[in-house]
């Protein structure tokens, strides 16, 4: 698989605190990539660098062989949609209004709202299962409902790349699996997905490509069947485990000892 989105020898830091040093990664085009690892290992920081929310101290991030910083904001947002870990909704905003913000990159002074925008918003709300409370204030929703609204906004953006930082947070187990199945389906339809996930078994089941991180570096990457074993789980998570086959999919399943 080729790579349009790349990080090359990047050093990422917040002030004086260095998170990653000389990290390189090619995001496989047309794949569902899951990034796993312990808290604080640099997973979210990597995604922030990909969408220009964090500028590398050294090295470069590029999309289609063009520096990410060279893209005008709307042009980049038509290619890469990003769902951060803790998004904040404006006070008083309703569900449909928030989802509609996903269409902002596609609007211009000559065409502020189009039938395509309306179709994209409606389709995204149905897909994320939030259409029943379209006119409710976002602040009145549960944490899981709000998370699905944010997912709908990202889907409404209709970008070829989706970058999601812990998208299953706050979701009950049913909606976790529905969302991951949706991301897998979008990958089959030609989208590229990269998501930070906490559950390694969910990552193994749904993702084509795994990236395991620890202390700001990539420990292993590849198909789950090729890289996930007890030694990797011990190294990355410091967790003794047994690896068995998932009884449904046959993919690796981590069973803690």
TrEMBL record:
Gene3D superfamilies documented for this protein: P-loop containing nucleotide triphosphate hydrolases
Topology in the lipid bilayer: Peripheral membrane protein
Protein name (record): ABC transporter ATP-binding protein
Keywords, in A-Z order: ATP-binding, Cell membrane, Ion transport, Iron, Iron transport, Membrane, Nucleotide-binding, Transport
Taxonomic source organism: Prauserella oleivorans
CDD domains: ABC_Iron-Siderophores_B12_Hemin
Pfam families: ABC_tran
Subcellular locations according to the entry: Cell membrane
SUPFAM superfamilies tied to this protein: P-loop containing nucleoside triphosphate hydrolases
Domain ABC transporter: 5-240
Main location: membrane
UniProt GO MF annotations: ATP binding
Domain of life: Bacteria
